[in-house]
Automatic annotation (TrEMBL):
Region (Disordered): 140-169
Biased composition (Acidic residues): 140-168
Segments forming domain KIB1-4 beta-propeller: 55-340
Protein name per UniProt: KIB1-4 beta-propeller domain-containing protein
Top-level division of the source organism's lineage: Eukaryota
Any Pfam family matching the protein: Beta-prop_KIB1-4
High-level lineage: Eukaryota, Viridiplantae, Streptophyta, Embryophyta, Tracheophyta
């Protein structure tokens, strides 16, 4: 009896030592509990080439330092479950990587461009999996014949020629099924982004949604890999009514898929010196039957996580966790704010 108690105590001590070691010692693998934890992990990539990663568990209030080689020199563009879309910091080379199994799926090459958005609809083993990029492709118009470059007639038009030589940017959709297509399907994005307006994006029920800035439309995008086209369905032509604080000039918007399969719109107000402090939030649910945004006073037993820097977010249930219900967790820099209708707290990690 004494031996069993001693063994159990020794095993518990070893577990505590392993937890302490896991917390403070750098490793080349993700935290051991990342597969078991239901609430989101916050990841900060540090260093000149993003060689060091800080995994922060909100529920455990613990952080873990890692040096994962696969994340070095990479930008995390999107994710679905444990699958990440990674991009090289030196080029537009992108691929899928599984954080748990270390499996890797190379994506077709992108042209020289600026990646405006990237979304992954589902894990690659899902039949409805698509990866979608919105890019600004660079097209350089070649100069005229060098033989005429010194003509007097051309000197008068130097300014005009310089303007014509500038790069021409065109918003274009690139999409494919990972591990299936050898090339991306392409579709012009001007039909959505008139006058160069952008939007806020999310994945909802394995489909892509965007709320455009200038035209105030909510659109659903459904890629068809067989035809190589994207079907665009207008859902609503007005933004939610956010005219609560007309004197606050800085704000941010997010659209997210809720745990109960509803689409949420989060509007965030800033206040204080230089409008740098999160002040208040409005949350709306989209009513698909009535085709309109409905403001909600309660978000129930869920927590909303949003990042101002990446303009992304996620939602999880708080029941059975240490997370605060009816709360919005907001990340800016290395600060984590926790907001509800009664208080606003923050901590640094």
């Amino acid at each position: 009896m004494t031996d069993s108690v001693y063994s159990a105590e020794k095993e518990r001590k070893m577990e505590l030592e392993e937890f302490k070691k896991e917390k403070y010692v750098e490793s080349d693998r993700p935290p051991f509990s990342i597969q078991q934890q239901q609430d989101p992990w916050l990841v900060m990539c540090d260093g000149d080439v993003r060689q060091k990663q800080t995994f922060f568990s909100v529920s455990q209030n613990q952080y873990y330092i890692r040096r994962i080689s696969e994340l070095k020199e990479k930008i995390i563009r999107a994710n679905a479950d444990e699958w990440l879309v990674l991009q090289s910091i030196y080029s537009t080379d992108c691929y899928l990587w599984n954080l748990i199994s270390n499996e890797k799926i190379q994506l077709p090459p992108l042209p020289e461009c600026t990646i405006l958005e990237c979304l992954l609809s589902a894990p690659p083993n899902d039949p409805e999996c698509h990866v979608l990029f919105l890019i600004e492709e660079t097209e350089t118009i070649p100069d005229d014949d060098d033989e005429n470059s010194n003509d007097d007639t051309n000197d008068e038009n130097d300014d005009t020629d310089d303007e014509n030589d500038e790069d021409v940017n065109s918003p274009t959709f690139y999409f494919c099924k990972p591990n299936y297509n050898e090339e991306f399907h392409k579709q012009d994005g001007h039909s959505i982004f008139e006058n160069g307006s952008g939007g806020i994006w999310t994945v909802f029920k394995k489909k892509f949604y965007v709320s455009t800035f200038q035209t105030r439309r909510l659109l659903c995008l459904e890629p068809d890999n067989d035809s190589g086209t994207i079907t665009i369905t207008p859902m609503f032509n007005e933004s939610p009514d956010v005219r609560k604080y007309l004197d606050m000039g800085r704000f941010a918007n997010f659209i997210l898929q809720s745990c109960d399969d509803t689409l949420l719109y989060v509007h965030m107000f800033f206040n204080g010196k230089n409008h740098g402090i999160p002040y208040d939030f409005l949350v709306f649910r989209f009513d698909f039957a009535r085709k309109r945004w409905i403001e909600t006073e309660s978000i129930g037993e869920i927590a909303i996580f949003i990042s101002y820097y990446t303009r992304t977010g996620t939602i999880c249930f708080t029941r059975g966790t240490n997370l605060n219900k009816e709360s919005i967790y907001f990340i800016e820099g290395r600060y984590l704010y926790v907001y509800n209708s009664l208080l606003l707290l923050f901590c640094q990690f």
